[in-house]
Each structure stands twice: as C-alpha cells, then as structure tokens.
C-alpha cells in the first residue's frame, strides 16, 4: 500500500485550504465563536430544542451549528447567540508592531482552556 504525501501546513489553516486572506480572517472568527457556542450548549447539557428556544431559532439550525456548519450564520449573528446565552464577546483592534505591514486576525476563547486560533 502506498503512503499518502503529507505537506506541512503554514499555520494558516483556512489559507492552506485555498481560501483568500479575507475569507480566512472571517472563518477564523466564525469558527472561534462557533466553538464557544458549542461549548456553552454542551456545558449546560441542553438538548437542541432547549438551545433553539434560548436562541430564538429552530432546532434544525441548532443542529447545523452543533456539527460545525457555519454557512448562513454571520459573525454578528453568532455574537448575538452568545450574548443570548450570557456570554461576552470582545473584539480588540490595535496597531501592528513595527516591522510588520499587515495586521492579522486572531480569535481567542477563554473557556475550558486558553486557546488561540489563527
């Protein structure tokens, strides 16, 4: 049996998958928000119907969120869902350090562990 070729990633997972820099930035933020949403629902032991009632959406949409389907959910909507569940979401904007021309997008959740994505 032949071994599959493995290519080391750049650390920019969405760009490695072929997304533009702009779309990658959006996906980094959305995936972090989605992860916080999933963890909150899991931590509260909510059934999908309970989460749907809390968020004001139908159970089918909660199901999509829980399996990681981000299509159809804007960053704004995901932030609103977190707020409805009693979670804070914070965005920090600052000037890039000297020597770097472009900014970068990073998302961080401070739930079970301190993770940085991006």
Oligomer: single chain
Instruction: Indicate the overall shape.
Output: globular
Order of helices and strands: HHHHHEE
The number of domains: 1
DSSP summary, beta strand count: 2
Give the helix/strand class: mainly alpha
CATH homologous superfamily label: lambda repressor-like DNA-binding domains
Note down, in words, how this protein is organized:
A hairpin with a 3-residue loop joins strand 1 and strand 2 (114-117). The model is unreliable at 113-118 (pLDDT under 50). The chain has one domain (19-113): 434 Repressor (Amino-terminal Domain), CATH 1.10.260.40. Strands 1-2 form a two-stranded antiparallel ribbon. The chain starts with 12 loop residues before the first helix and ends with a strand. By secondary structure, it is mainly α. The chain contains 5 helices and 2 strands, in the order H-H-H-H-H-E-E.
Entry summary:
With 118 residues, the chain is mostly helical. The chain is built from 5 helices and 2 strands.
Architecture blueprint of SSEs:
Layout: H1 13-16, H2 21-43, H3 48-55, H4 59-66, H5 75-84, E1 107-110, E2 114-117
Antiparallel strand pairs: 1-2
Q: Key features?
A:
about 120 residues, mainly alpha, 434 Repressor (Amino-terminal Domain), two-stranded antiparallel sheet, 5 helices
């Amino acid at each position: 049996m032949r071994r599959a070729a493995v290519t080391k990633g750049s650390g920019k997972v969405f760009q490695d998958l072929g997304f533009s820099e702009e779309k990658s930035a959006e996906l980094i933020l959305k995936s972090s928000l989605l992860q916080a949403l999933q963890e909150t629902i899991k931590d509260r032991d909510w059934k999908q119907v309970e989460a749907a009632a809390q968020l004001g959406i139908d159970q089918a949409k909660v199901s999509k969120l829980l399996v990681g389907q981000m299509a159809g959910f804007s960053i704004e909507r995901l932030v609103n869902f977190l707020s409805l569940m009693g979670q804070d979401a914070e965005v920090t904007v600052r000037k890039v350090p000297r020597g770097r021309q472009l900014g970068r997008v990073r998302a961080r959740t401070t739930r079970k562990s301190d993770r940085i994505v991006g």
